[in-house]
Amino acid sequence: MAKHMVKCFYCGEMFDASTTPFIKPNSRRYAHKTCAQTAEENKTQEEKDKQLLENYIKKLFGINCISPKIKKQIETFRKDNNYSYTGMYKTLKYFFEIKGNSIEKANGGIGIVPFVYDEAYTYWRALWEARERNERVDVEKFILPVREVHIEPPQRQPMKHIRKLFTFLNEEEAHEE
Question: What domain range includes position 51?
């Protein structure tokens, strides 16, 4: 079998891809499987959150790579508005999936994030608080109190101004005279 010598993306060592287990971090690069696993474990939470945001944007817009416009928007929101990657991810998820807004109106960008960020934060915070409160409640032991409500039937009031009904007899009397 022919040797397929490649350089590891992470450690830089040359290895034979036809005999050694490998992973492709991108379309043109190769890496040892162990090096890739180690690199994945050593990623910071911020890097993982950024990756999650980028993957969601790719899936949302149906694209293979993030456009420079979106990258610029992400970095601007990060630096100027101090938004987290997770916050931007949850804002987009809230705006497009939960609120059901159209992706076509986005014009290939995520410019809606600053306008919906606080609303999305309030939604996710309320959801988290509800989960926390319900975590301590045992559903099997919870019994809703029964309340009886008596509503009196409405009383019909007689009509005060009764109109005279129109009849043809009045016209006949007027014509006979």
Answer: 44-134
